[in-house]
Design a protein that fits this description.
330 residues, mainly alpha, Serine Threonine Protein Phosphatase 5, Tetratricopeptide repeat, 16 helices
């Protein structure tokens, strides 16, 4: 029984790395059922499966469910392995990632700091796992608008990744992608595009053209082109991303909805207000359902839609729903 479960778990990991999430989840569910029966609910192998299933829920945009499963994994790992064990810290890091996706940036930083401190102590400051925590903290700081602090950490992570893993490793390329995002947020669009092009070339080679991580970089390039006023080029890239996300992640995934929202922004800036309205409404309906009405991304869509209604003289129906956010468009 355990051999079969181990095989299902290992194959699930392979599918997950290749972006084949539906198949991965099916295999994890099979592995979990077998491991709970053969080993018990608190065995480290069972908890590894729980942790990875939580990751899958988070990747699907089911953030509350992801946290519920991570909390189970964390409680079990703290009891069985200890609070400073690397697998425990992995769950702490993953919970921080979910808090960040929910827009709870201060809480995310708090949990990243715990993961980082533990990894520095156990592995050293230059270990790839430590550098992942550094990268994630930088990403959160960037989302808060603390761009200089974010860049300092990204540069530290990038130097370490290049030395330990190589210039074309996916972790290195993710850091390059994230540095590009900060450059774009600072209005340095050409620098951002240069970094995105580096990240994209590496990801297409290492992961494939349709992998969600690859599509994430394409999405970011489209965002930058849109900010430069190069709307047709941006739309062409967004259409590629949307088709890929809908296939790989589903039509209601937060990343899919983010692309819908940003395509609406392009239509609005092109003066295609009817189409913009249609796409903003689609993004808003999805974000309210998946993320909740108070999530920063939902509020960003509400603000954009309210602005569009105001410019076209149709304000009444939206004012009662509007809660003005203070975060950038995503």
């Amino acid at each position: 029984m355990t051999i079969i479960c181990d095989g299902a778990y290992t194959l699930g990991n392979v599918f997950r790395r290749h972006g084949r999430y539906k198949q991965a989840m099916e295999l994890y569910e099979r592995a979990l059922a077998g491991r709970e029966k053969a080993l018990g609910t608190d065995h480290p192998d069972t908890l590894r499966t729980v942790n990875n299933m939580a990751w899958m829920f988070g990747n699907q945009g089911q953030y509350e469910k992801a946290l519920e499963w991570y909390e189970r994994a964390l409680a079990g790992r703290e009891k069985a392995l200890g609070v400073d064990h690397l697998e425990t810290l992995d769950t702490v890091n993953n919970m921080a990632l979910i808090f960040g996706k929910q827009g709870q940036y201060e809480k995310a930083l708090e949990w990243y700091e715990r993961a980082l401190a533990g990894r520095v102590k156990a592995l050293g400051i230059d270990h790839p796992e430590t550098l992942r925590a550094v990268n994630n903290m930088a990403l959160t700081l960037g989302n808060q608008g603390q761009y200089e602090k974010a860049l300092d950490l990204f540069e530290r992570a990038l130097a370490g990744h290049e030395k330990a893993l190589g210039v074309d490793h996916p972790d290195t390329l993710r850091t390059v992608n994230n540095m590009a995002s900060v450059s774009g947020s600072q209005g340095e669009y050409e620098k951002a595009l240069e970094l995105y092009e580096r990240a994209l070339a590496g990801k297409e080679k290492a992961l494939g053209v349709d992998h969600p991580d690859t599509l994430g970089t394409v999405h970011n390039m489209a965002l930058t082109l849109g900010n430069q006023g190069r709307y047709e080029q941006a739309l062409e890239l967004y259409e590629r991303v949307l088709a890929g996300y809908e296939t790989a992640l589903g039509v209601t995934h937060p990343d899919t909805l983010g692309t819908v929202n940003n395509m609406a922004w392009i239509f609005d800036n092109q003066g295609r207000h009817g189409k913009a309205l249609e796409w903003y409404e689609r993004a808003l309906a999805g974000r309210e359902k998946v993320l909740g009405v108070n999530h920063p991304h939902t509020q960003n869509t509400l603000r954009a839609l309210a602005n569009l209604h105001q410019r076209t003289g149709q304000t009444e129906q939206l004012h009662a729903r509007l809660y003005v956010p203070k975060t950038p468009r995503t």
